[in-house]
Amino acid sequence: MTSVEAPATSHSGAVSRSGSEDARLAVASEGGSNGGVVARDNSLHVESAGSTRTGDPQDSSYVASFLSRQHLMPHWRNVLARPRNRSCGSVTVLSFSSSSSSSQSGGLTLQSSHELSSYAVNPSSLTAALTPDLNAGLEQADSNVLSSLPRAVLVSDLSEPLINSLGPIFRLSPETFEEHLIRSGYTSTSYQDRDSSTWPTRFLPKQHVSLRWHSLVSRKDTEPRDASSRRVLMEDMMEWRRSFGKGPGGKIMWHTRLLSKLTNIFRQEWSLSPTSRPLKRRLVMSDQPRGLIDIGEGDEFEEVEKGPRADEELDVVAWEERVTFCWGSWNQGRCPILFFDPLPRMLLNDRQVHQESKWVNFVPFSKRLAPRGPPPAQEFDHAPAALDAVSAYANSTSDALSDAAAWVRHLTGESAFKDNGSSAVDLLLFAVFQVVRRDTIALLGHVGDVLDQISSGSMDERMMQEQLEHWRAVLSRLQRELPVLEKSMGDFFMFPYYAESKHGEASPPPPPLLNAALRELQADTAAMTVRCQKVQESLRAEMSLLESKRGIQEAESVSRLTELAFIFIPMTFAAGLFSMQIRELADNPPPAYGFVIAAAVAVALSYGLRLVQRSTVVSESLNKWEDEIRRDEQVMTRVIPIRKIAHWLMLKLRLKLLIFFVSSGSIAILVAPLWTRTAMDTSFKVVITVLALLCMLLVVGMVLWVSTSAFESLIPNRGNTVLGFGRIWRGPPRVREWETGVNPNGPNLADDNVTAGQQGNSADDGV
């Protein structure tokens, strides 16, 4: 593997490394907030002058002391593991002092801020950062007062040396680090971690609390793009190849790309775009070992190095972030500690045979959708310099620790926190709340826009079919995340005040400003949760209507195909009949018109049966017979049994069956001797048989006509219709005024009723 020689890092301390980790750390030390520093050479070595490397046996005693008891705490899957990068993370110590210019006592101002890198953190350096600076403009007599003033520790990212230093100094439990490392990408299996609510220690009192929220960012079209690529990146590094045409001799020019993460904490994201777009690039497997090939359009390395185009539309994703609060104990009392997530930095290497390697350090998103740091000091006016400041503020992509520290410096200058006696914990929590609040407001605003587009897009049938799966995934994720965010915000920002009361100390009330703003943010989150539920219910209703419409369309298409079947199936039958190996047809083939006549007769019979099935006479007759069977046989079930139908037919048709059998027997007695004579001509036999049948039918018909109206009760009265298929004439409508009972075209119904009543009375009198 070729490497690059990069400038030495600016941090104090001595480090000597080799391999890919050296390259990552070298470029990481030079990268800006948006990434883009490229180094080119043939070898890479990082050397600094100074102290020894952390991670010696005496430094790793904290983690090593718990390894033998790891089976007692099976949920400690990250804190006791060894991450890939050992030199990640930083510690910032904030020192506060009392403001002498404030009108009331107790106001705090930020005195100093000490930042230590991970390999510079050790007991001596932390003690020096926490020890008050007696030369900072204060007298020696004020050293006792200064030593009692609060300190705060802010930590970004975690590594094994950092855990070994922070744990024993502040007497922290490994569970505190494990809480912050849940599903953080700290190890290769970290994304499968279980939530802390399922731990066996969930019922014990805690000295820490964690908050997970989401920051909206514009995602670059870079790896990792899916869960499988992210898993490969967490395990080691991603490697793929890309072809760039053909070189001399027609040989394909291949570039090898290597992607690795520079931070131990690398959390996940989920899409929050209103529509899903196909990926511009994707990796496919080849038959070569480790044979991932990029078949997308454009050069990913150039886009990462130069940034996305101005007209390029990027996907909006919700990037997960977490902050953990705990109390640390040291020789001068307790101090609040906050653990933050770093920017998810990655290192992309481009290699080509006989060419120099190029490295670029970048962040997988271009910018946040809304800035979360304090507003710039320069007002936005007509000055050009103000425009530059506002643009830099709007496009900033700093990490959560930097934004929180900036809010601390900003809030210490405001009178609301300077003159009301706020403590360092109040100041820190409100600074973190400002970061979370701005991210959450941007999230809720974007979610509202997404819900509007889902509601409007669900009216478009084509868009509904294309985006339904994506919309359901977004709504399902929002239904899970928003209620958890609402609850965890209250637990996090109220924990320091209630945690003190558990230790027997007086519990100060939360600041009114923080309490009111928190309740307002929780109410907005709850309202958006309710709106998501309504949109999801509306989408389900639209899905039901779409499925119903699709079912109707399918039924109509099946009906049309059935109409065609009534034509082509008889033709197929006729064709099969004429293609059979029949001796008469084979010896004397029929003419073409014979096939046409047979096919026409078959189609007519088939379609005639369909018309009979759809006939009103047949349907109403069947309904009438069904009612009679249910009434006569006392059938209460939905389906009429066959034996009930047979019994009813036997009772209903016994006279007709008797006449049928008698007439059939009579004809058989008359015709049988006729057909037994072989000397008689066949045509004469047929004529005599037909005449006998006609005579018998005539006699039977006359008997039935005289005895009973056989068909009068079977065929319903349809008026002027032809076999129930439609009226052959239509008379004038009979209009009746139903209030008075008067028929303008006929006799008065009221008079008829009166006359009928009088006749009835007369009859009664006669009786």
UniProtKB/TrEMBL annotation:
GO terms for molecular function: metal ion transmembrane transporter activity. One of its GO terms (cellular component) is membrane. Residues 1-18, 755-767 have a biased composition (Polar residues). Keywords: Membrane, Transmembrane, Transmembrane helix. The keyword Ribosomal protein does not apply. Residues 1-40, 741-767 are annotated as: Disordered. The chain crosses the membrane at residues 592-612, 657-675, 687-706. This is Uncharacterized protein. Pfam families: CorA. Signal peptide: none annotated.
